[in-house]
Amino acid sequence: MKSHQPAPWSRLDNAAKIFPPTSDREDTKVFRFACELSEEVDPALLQQALDRTVEDFPLYLSVIKKGMFWYYFERSNLRPTVHLECKPPCSPLYDGNRKGLLFEVTCYKRRISLEVYHALSDGTGALQFLRTLVARYLVLRHPERFPEGMPPLDYDASGTQKMDDSFQKYYGGAKRYRKDPAPHAFRLRGEKTEDYRLKVVSGVMSASSVLKVAHSCGATLTVLLAAVLIEAIHGEMPLREEGRPVVLTVPVNLRSYFPSASARNFFGIFNVGYNFKKQPGTFEDILSHVGGYFKRELTAERLALRMNELAALEHNLIARAVPLAFKDVSLRIANRLSERGITAALSNVGRISMPAGMEEYIRLFDVFTSTNRLQLCLCSFGDRLVLSFSSTFAGVDVQRRFFRRLAQLGIDIEITTNQLDGQ
């Protein structure tokens, strides 16, 4: 007689809990990393590389299931298959009515794309998966160049470390985080794309050129781009709404402040706003204001306070006993309320590296995400910096203003966009 052992399972991390109840067709909570090679992709070899890569990331073979009180991951027998890209970017991956893997690997000409449902991992965790996948693929594609097989990546975490829930590890108890009530932020409005399809506008430029401009302004690259984005949004703001601040929400990789090799979610968020009615509104003042706010908020102490306050819910005995259906309603309401305080988002994944000898086969990396507002994501490889806007707005006026401002600062930009039906 066959013995039916229960499938291995694990809890969703603290950041992941918000995603299942708030995913919808306008915001699927899916993000995409892409790697553009210098040659066309061989799908058969990519499948071989994928088969080996998933064994190193066991959580990626999980599905989400509903419990009485929380969602949880359960290991499945499903296996991922490489497909030629045929769907709109960041299409839904999670469906509460069926079991399915929470990521997908596709290819198109020279591009390898990894799409991930955010409950599974954050950008840093997913990037480790893509780096491993691309490295394995290049070893299979060019065995003569890598006769000793897979070169070491600068990410050698064990299976246990990859599965680590770092929110639990660093939870230090709920301490009151003092913050002023968030005012209603300025919200971008406009015609939406058909079926809320994601419109992506990307700019490729020299990373060293942007850094040079940032340093000449006494700013970091992220602060410079945040200031340019705030200024660009202001250019589209009706005069009657200038009393509302332009607020950017900025994800922060907590691994930079709390040692962790987790391939799961481990990020924090802070908001930075600028009120054009109460402040001068010059670019120099926006830059100074944003720089000062980043400096104050990006400390381990401040990030720990935010992290502990958000994690306190799952440690509260009363909240833990509330059935999942009621938690879902509460989380949807909380999500809608928080959305009222945000105009747009900016996420800097940072510099991406690959093992020696592989750079010659890779042109660039790119990242963008589903969103119901406007989001700017960026990453760099070598000297190529890619800035990608995503939104479901049909218009691209903010994006146009943003890239024009960078061009005025002396930065050469190559701009591309995905073509939507009817455009």
UniProtKB/TrEMBL annotation:
InterPro entries per the UniProt record, alphabetical: CAT-like_dom_sf (IPR023213)
Identification of the protein by name: NRPS condensation-like uncharacterized protein
Organism: Harryflintia acetispora
